[in-house]
Amino acid sequence: MELKIVDTKGKATSKSVTLSDEVFGIEPNDHAIYMDVKHYLASRRQGTHKAKERSEIAGSTRKIKKQKGTGGARAGSVKSGTRVGGGRIFGPRPRNYSFKLNTKLKRLARKSALSYKAQGENIMVLEDFNFDTPKTKDFVALMGNLKLNDQKVLLVMGAKNDNVFLSSRNLQRAKVVTADSLNTYDIMNAGKLVLAESSIEVIEKVLN
């Protein structure tokens, strides 16, 4: 797949780039995408939720009423989960939600996500650039030049660039990542995938 490289003004340059069919042109595997997105979201969960059970509630251990003769059910503790103010029955405990996923499956999922973007013509290749200082205004102007202000954009840089990253940080509909940290969730969550020219080589090297 061949794409024209555009400059920061949004105009096509004389240069073009060929995207590898092994990365951007495979038959997408929906289940691999599902598993990788599930793995990503599960790994982001803190798992620090905790509810007190009856043994952790502060209160008297005295038996509430006598065992027999009241006409009601037996009751032994004010801390029972069936009473107001008692502990929670089978409440949440701190746990780790992450699970293992094979590297080959993750790689297949990213290739599948990139192939979906390529099939939908939602990939744009941008020439390498930099900002002199971190300014949100400069990033908004760049998105305006690319006519992407009304879309969710994932910008993939070839290497870490603090000025570009900090310029995009306040924008809800834009995210900047490096090519070596690209993940399936971010690709599928974006409406438009903007690849910096130098990022393509890194992506193809990582996924091949």
UniProtKB/TrEMBL annotation:
Signal peptide: none annotated. One of its GO terms (cellular component) is ribosome. Residues 45-87 are annotated as: Disordered. It comes from the Bacteria. Gene3D superfamilies: 3.40.1370.10. InterPro entries: Ribosomal_uL4 (IPR002136), Ribosomal_uL4-like (IPR013005), Ribosomal_uL4_dom_sf (IPR023574). Keywords: Ribonucleoprotein, Ribosomal protein, RNA-binding, rRNA-binding. Belongs to the universal ribosomal protein uL4 family. Part of the 50S ribosomal subunit. Forms part of the polypeptide exit tunnel. This is Large ribosomal subunit protein uL4. It comes from Wandonia haliotis. The gene is rplD.
